[in-house]
């Protein structure tokens, strides 16, 4: 009996380069937009872009993404460094295009904010992150790196939910709990019935 040939996984080296390239592009976009925001915006003053739907307001954040965790900047910086290493390790093991793109987005966002932590005042591991994008409903001000982190994290969750594995395969489907009883009943129905005992004449 011959089995159908399995499709070969994408070369991991190419997927690694793709993920790193996406991360580099997002890192560059994040840093460029932050520089432009600092040059063109006054701190704390909102500039409407799409009326009340979207605006720019320059803000310096010492916390995590979306202004969470202020006051523990060095701890967040160390955690971000560890996260970057973990994402890079995962990228080297990726055999899936979707996983590589998701990890690349996550890596680019993490590197964007980590760059601020390391290079901006008041000093290494204590630098403040530049935020400038504001949307309604009192949502925290954020930046391009924050959007990349969210996009990557959501993509990873969705890939896990649909059974897409990091290595490129799919998680085996769970067997239906009722399959065993149903197949047994079907087998009983197909089994030949014993002949009736002979009647006494």
UniProtKB/TrEMBL annotation:
Keywords: Aspartyl protease, Cell membrane, Hydrolase, Membrane, Protease, Transmembrane, Transmembrane helix. It comes from the Bacteria. The active site is at 131, 146. It comes from Aquipuribacter hungaricus. GO terms for molecular function: aspartic-type endopeptidase activity. It catalyses: Release of signal peptides from bacterial membrane prolipoproteins. Hydrolyzes -Xaa-Yaa-Zaa-|-(S,diacylglyceryl)Cys-, in which Xaa is hydrophobic (preferably Leu), and Yaa (Ala or Ser) and Zaa (Gly or Ala) have small, neutral side chains. Residues 171-189 have a biased composition (Low complexity). It is found in: Cell membrane. This is Lipoprotein signal peptidase. Residues 169-201 are annotated as: Disordered. PROSITE patterns: SPASE_II. It is an enzyme of class 3 (hydrolase). InterPro entries: Peptidase_A8 (IPR001872). Belongs to the peptidase A8 family. It is a multi-pass membrane protein. Residues 190-201 have a biased composition (Basic and acidic residues). Pathway: Protein modification; lipoprotein biosynthesis (signal peptide cleavage). The keyword Magnesium does not apply. This protein specifically catalyzes the removal of signal peptides from prolipoproteins. The chain crosses the membrane at residues 64-90, 97-115, 135-162. Its EC number is 3.4.23.36. NCBIfam families: lspA.
């Amino acid at each position: 009996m011959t089995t159908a040939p399995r499709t070969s996984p994408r070369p991991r080296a190419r997927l690694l380069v793709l993920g790193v390239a996406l991360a580099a592009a997002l890192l560059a976009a994040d840093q460029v937009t932050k520089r432009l925001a600092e040059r063109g915006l006054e701190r704390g003053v909102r500039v409407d872009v799409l009326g009340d739907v979207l605006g720019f307001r320059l803000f310096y954040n010492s916390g995590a993404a979306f202004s969470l965790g202020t006051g523990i900047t060095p701890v967040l910086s160390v955690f971000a460094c560890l996260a970057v290493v973990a994402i890079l390790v995962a990228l080297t093991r990726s055999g899936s295009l979707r996983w590589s793109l998701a990890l690349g987005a996550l890596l680019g966002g993490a590197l964007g904010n980590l760059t601020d932590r390391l290079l901006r005042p008041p000093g290494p591991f204590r630098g403040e992150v530049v935020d400038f994008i504001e949307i309604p409903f009192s949502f925290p001000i954020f930046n391009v790196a924050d959007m990349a982190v969210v996009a990557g994290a959501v993509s990873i969750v969705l890939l896990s939910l649909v059974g897409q594995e990091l290595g490129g395969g799919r998680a085996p489907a769970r067997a239906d709990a009722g399959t065993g009883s149903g197949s047994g009943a079907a087998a009983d129905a197909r089994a030949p019935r014993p002949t009736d005992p002979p009647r006494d004449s």
